[in-house]
Prior knowledge:
Elements: H1 22-41, H2 46-50, H3 61-80, H4 107-125, E1 133-135, E2 141-143, H5 144-170
Antiparallel strand pairs: 1-2
Helix pairs in contact: 1-3, 1-5, 3-4, 3-5
Amino acid sequence: MAWAAPPVVRTVELGSLGVLPERQMLEGWLQWHRETLMAKCAGLPAVDMARTTVAPSTLSLLGLVRHMAEIERWWFRRSFAGEALGDVFTGPEDGNEGLDGVEAADAARAFESFLTEIRLSDAAAAGRDLDETFRSAGGVSLSLRWVYCVMIQEYARHNGHADLLRERTDGATGDSG
């Protein structure tokens, strides 16, 4: 049987985030957005995830999954935690951070890499203070709080793309795929 993106069981309900302490709220919003991207892919076979559906754009759902694996690694592990790591797929040097070079045959590995990077990103931030700072590649002082905020906006942007890509793939709309 051909690989298809796994179903998503939501672990975060937006209504539950309204009065949480800051850390839990940031973690909750980030997890909700991660799950939204997964929901946009749920049930799709690899060939559909790799398809570009909005010409002339080369964006695909699989490209977005790869990109977000790269971005998770970049901000949480390489930048904040200071881990000396290479790229998951491609990095900032090529300007596309995993969006291009997408092959359906790599879908299962890409999706697993995405899930692994989420787990490792969460581990890199666990127990660390939101006010803890690091120097960006450009020499700017940034906090872990900033990383959560930039990741939430990054997912929000790309989940909008994923909405359109999924609708153009099979007509599915909404947060559940």
